[in-house]
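Protein modeling request. Please complete all fields; requests missing the sequence field cannot be processed.
Requester role: graduate student
Desired output: 3D structure, token encoding
Chains: 1
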Amino acid sequence: MADRSKAEIAEKTAPRATKPRVDVPARRASYLRTAAKVILAKGASATMQDIADAAGAPKPVFYRIFPSKHALIEAMFDHVSDVLTEVQKGQWSGYGWLLRVLYLEARKEPEIFLVALKTFRGDPVFEPKRQKLLDQVQTKSLAFFVPAPDARPGAKQRATYATKTLNMLSFDTLVTWLEGADRLSDEARFKWWGRIIREWRKATREAFELDGPGASTPD
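Delivered output (219 residues):
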């Protein structure tokens, strides 16, 4: 009897096995990648059920992380924005450097970038998110267009307009590279894009009259 009591006490006091903690950020990232692949395959009409099935997750579990399809797509735009923020912290290393390093990062999770920059391009629901990405690029471009002290009046406003002239082309080019639609090697892409940016800056400064009379555009 005493032995039985000891056994019962030991059973009651023994530490119970606990389930391992769920790594929510890792699960969220995994679901996001899966969702991007499903949307690229099925288009914008892909449902949350399609995505949950592909992720191997019960729909209630999936909804706890992404409560709606809108939240899911917004998360993809936010991911692109976060990556862009990080690469913009790098040091300038020649014309075209930003798109080069952004592309190398985007290749790690290309589906997410393609959904944000291509699948939902033009969707008014997500236009604020897309505009945020364009604004990020524009802000970085301002360094290229600082007006000369003797530029004609209104140069600061013209410089702001000048920064917008290549934003859309930058994202379209990134999509082309991620899809491999140009059939170029990375080396050829980077060289080509660098030349475009160099000439674009020079021509744009001239067009928006950001330099003083008779000044030559610095390299």
